[in-house]
Design a protein that fits this description.
CATH topology of the largest domain in chain A: Ribosomal Protein S8, Chain: A, domain 1
CATH superfamily of the largest domain in chain A: Malate/L-lactate/L-sulpholactate dehydrogenase, NADPH binding domain
Largest sheet of chain A: 7 strands, mixed
Helix content of chain A: 25-40%
Order of helices and strands of chain A: EHHHEEHEHEEEHEEHEHEHHEH
Oligomer: homodimer
Strand order of the largest sheet of chain A: 2-3-4-11-5-6-7
Number of strands of chain A: 12
Distance between the termini of chain A: 12 Å
Structural class of chain A: alpha+beta
CATH architecture of the largest domain in chain A: 2-Layer Sandwich
CATH class of the largest domain in chain A: Alpha Beta
Number of helices of chain A: 11
Number of domains of chain A: 3
Amino acid sequence: MLYPREQLHSFAAQVFQQCGLTEADARLAADVLDAADIRGIDSHGISRLWAYVRLFDERLVNPRPKVSIIRETASTAAVDGDNGLGLIVGPKANNIAMQKAAEAGMGWVTVRGSSHYGIAGYYPLQALRHELIGWSMTNASTRVTPLWGAERQLGTNPIAVAFPAGEEQPIVIDMATSVVALGKLEIAQRKGELVPDGWIVDRDGQPSNRPEEMSAGGCLLPLGSDRESGGHKGYCLASLVDLLSGVLSGANWGPFVPSFLIAERNLPPVGKGTGHCFASMRIDAFMDLEEYKQRVDQWIRTMRSTKPAPGTNGPIIPGDPERQTEAERSKSGIPLHQSVVDGLREVARQKEVAFD
Amino acid sequence: MLYPREQLHSFAAQVFQQCGLTEADARLAADVLDAADIRGIDSHGISRLWAYVRLFDERLVNPRPKVSIIRETASTAAVDGDNGLGLIVGPKANNIAMQKAAEAGMGWVTVRGSSHYGIAGYYPLQALRHELIGWSMTNASTRVTPLWGAERQLGTNPIAVAFPAGEEQPIVIDMATSVVALGKLEIAQRKGELVPDGWIVDRDGQPSNRPEEMSAGGCLLPLGSDRESGGHKGYCLASLVDLLSGVLSGANWGPFVPSFLIAERNLPPVGKGTGHCFASMRIDAFMDLEEYKQRVDQWIRTMRSTKPAPGTNGPIIPGDPERQTEAERSKSGIPLHQSVVDGLREVARQKEVAFD
């Protein structure tokens, strides 16, 4: 079923208002979900609305947080999200990073006391509007084992970075530091398919191709999977994100990050909420903007012109697939599975908001 | 053969002085090589001295560069290395990042007009001495194809980041963004062994296990290797490093980065020399240093206590292997292959410096 993005946005915003958010905050949270849906990252869009609603129903998240700077320098800030929804704490902290960049060339902001912040890519897309290079990272519920481990200790801890371009479309990197996103396991399990070597280990740390091992206490592997193929590097990247977003911010880290799905076990906290990290860099702090634009355009054209590997159309540019989906869905609307629609209707009923 | 590190350091410094460097710069360049040798990264230590010497002999590098800031803000600087040796331009630019961090919370420095800067990990190790979080990245001679390509367009573009700890040893990440370092291919070729799936493609972009395909125009694959295992993510990371170190700095980027080995073909330049990028972050810009130290110590202990995968001793901490090698080599000395010793004796003869 296809739904116009405006309808889903308006519905999500009304639901968030019913959860106690201000009208402006509710619209902001809906913006972040919309960015996922329109770009084809279905696992992080309106399909998760019910899970955010549960956080409010269980009083696990503060609907009216006072997001504040608890420490700052010319180019940095440590932000406390006051246990607010990540979908509004994240954008506010990201704005602080952009302001710092305007004032000091670069801004780097850590966040504690937040919760699930949606797609990592939303934040650098905001920076692009101001012709800034934007970064975002977050830690996340524990799903990933370090290399040589048989126990979940890290999240899929994504890194997103975007670079403005000139005549070309911008470069938008948005990647989990695990070998795959959890959603791919869920899809394989639904279809009854096996998954490739190197994606997961079972609860005893043995390699497995059975996606259902994840729900039985197995672990995702870090990018690179095993030692021979660079699994230590994926572990390093997941650690980097956790140390910057979690340890340095004062949030929970590693296995202590609160689960987004409240049914899951949470360990006693070692900090406040979930942790993020945002950065913005002013291009003219390093070179003339026009010169940069010419250079990055040439970089993009050079990569696009790479000789293709057999059986492929050749390399693409980070952000291309999401851009193509956005172009399609802007016309056609957002496709939703029947199970998602059913869930939204249930949320609509509970929150007394019309869905369709 | 085992050589005391002091002997190798002194020899390298004398050779660099004979190449025209000041005494202080010559010692600095020798420091960077020593950091590789003592930590076991043999491909980036004194075994490469001959290649640096060639750069001077061919007048490709300026022995007395005036390293200057061409643009700056409170927290950022764009540095021009004046076509100097990366082993001295790098440390000077890294110092600027550390100064900026002291003044503005964080420092981010791009560098153009440099050359091969040694191991990426040297630079964050310097930041650790000042209890800063340190970053370094560099682009490098083209060796890696983007995912779905059959042509070298990117270097092994490493990322190194180090985090100070309290009672525990610091966390030191230092990783190429390719699936493996080039040195592993060279070793396999010397031994006449095949390499694992997913490391390289031949000059036509076909997967290969024959290491000699690299010298025949093949390509290293990015971390993740293929689409199914996350090769797009390794390509994203190599691009990230190239865009920050090369495009934004005004240096060459992608296939235009000058080769360290002067016998190799160079494309007409699109910028100045090789590009790097350094960052430093003051911990007390985000939280009290003592609180951070307790938190990071607990993170380290948590990761070390992960349940081990079958057949392993369990996860280690980034920097452990290099630290262990350093402890061993500090006592025993640096092991050098006969071919390396022969090369050093030849350099000694040419530059009229005693080796042994």
